[in-house]
What we know:
By secondary structure, the chain is mainly α. It is built from six helices and no strands. α1 runs antiparallel to α2 (11-36). The longest helix is centred in the first third of the chain and has 26 residues, at 11-36.
Amino acid sequence: DIEQEAHDEGPAAVAELRALEMKYSLIAQLIRGRKELHLTQQELSVRSGIGQAEISKIERGRKSPTLDTYSRLATALDLPLGQLTQGPTSAAV
């Protein structure tokens, strides 16, 4: 179990696990929001002003966007701030 391994390794490993959980939770919420609006990455790019290639990297977890980028994407998807600040979700992307 990953959770137990992190606890066994110590506080730094637990903090790293929490950071990864938050990162992938935010990514999942962005993807879910885009799909609920039936938008392509290109359409989201036009709405947000973020390049399609960058959106692709973000959705694949290859790039960690700035807070500004997250907020521009969330605004383009009409995601309420409370939804983005919720903890990790268990819903599959």
